[in-house]
């Protein structure tokens, strides 16, 4: 049985990823940091649609201590794939940004994903092939004013994935980043209607991405025939900023 763990599964992109993977026959760990009712509802809905698969809600914080991360990983059933779809930002000039918020953005977007990757490696290497996918951002290539720390974390994911992929490529574990442009999710609701209209006007495709635009590429990277693609950042941006 193919099983993936989707971190940030209750977010806009995470939900689309889970929906596509469930339809494709994957069993899933459906992770949330706080929205436990949504994770349970998703699991129950998928179980009704796909009774031969397993859907397990999972709650833990990306601010967890190292020993808590270790316990969580030790509790998991065998997995073939890990998708990091969680993420937070803080829309401020750096000089106005609370230092604790800097720590939070770094922890959720970069530090804890790296730690979990290290802890999950033994589980993944037991398979004939396995996958790690990070949801990055176009801002990892061209940094965004007002989101300097967020941009730094997404750039860090790309360089980490490039380096780590070279360590595990011979074991058929691929590591890649899918970097969306502007996506129609709750994270972008902090931007005013006027500002968002300006952004859409800059996108050659003429629209924001949907969650399905991103989850399509997640599913493609999970295909067994994608083994030769590793250490890459795929920009799914409608031609914007790339």
Automatic annotation (TrEMBL):
NCBIfam families noted in UniProt: EF_P_mod_YmfI (NF047420)
SUPFAM superfamilies, per database record: NAD(P)-binding Rossmann-fold domains
Native organism: Lactobacillus apis
Domain of life from the UniProt record: Bacteria
Name of the encoding gene: fabG
Record-stated family: Belongs to the short-chain dehydrogenases/reductases (SDR) family.
Alphabetical list of InterPro entries matching this protein: NAD(P)-bd_dom_sf, Sc_DH/Rdtase_CS, SDR, SDR_fam
BP GO annotations: monocarboxylic acid metabolic process
Protein's name according to its UniProt entry: 3-oxoacyl-[acyl-carrier-protein] reductase
């Amino acid at each position: 049985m193919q099983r993936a763990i989707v971190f940030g599964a209750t977010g806009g992109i995470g939900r689309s990823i889970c929906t596509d993977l469930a339809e494709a026959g994957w069993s899933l760990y459906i992770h949330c940091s706080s929205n436990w009712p949504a994770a349970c509802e998703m699991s129950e809905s998928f179980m009704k649609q796909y009774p031969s698969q397993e859907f397990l809600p999972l709650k833990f914080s990306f601010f967890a201590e190292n020993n808590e991360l270790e316990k969580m990983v030790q509790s998991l059933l065998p997995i073939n794939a890990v998708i990091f779809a969680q993420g937070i930002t803080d829309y401020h000039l750096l000089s106005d940004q609370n230092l604790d918020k800097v720590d939070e953005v770094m922890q959720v977007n970069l530090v804890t994903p790296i730690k979990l990757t290290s802890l999950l490696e033994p589980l993944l290497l037991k398979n004939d092939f396995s996958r790690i996918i990070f949801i990055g951002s176009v801002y990892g290539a061209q940094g965004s004013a007002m989101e300097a720390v967020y941009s730094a974390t997404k750039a860090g994911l790309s360089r980490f994935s490039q380096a780590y992929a070279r360590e595990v490529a011979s074991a058929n574990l691929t590591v890649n980043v899918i970097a969306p442009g502007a996506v129609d999710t709750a994270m972008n609701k902090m931007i005013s209607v006027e500002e968002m209209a300006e952004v859409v006007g800059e996108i050659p495709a003429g629209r924001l991405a949907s969650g399905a635009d991103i989850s399509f590429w997640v599913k493609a990277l999970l295909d067994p025939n994608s083994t030769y693609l590793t250490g890459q950042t795929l920009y799914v941006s409608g031609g914007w900023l790339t």
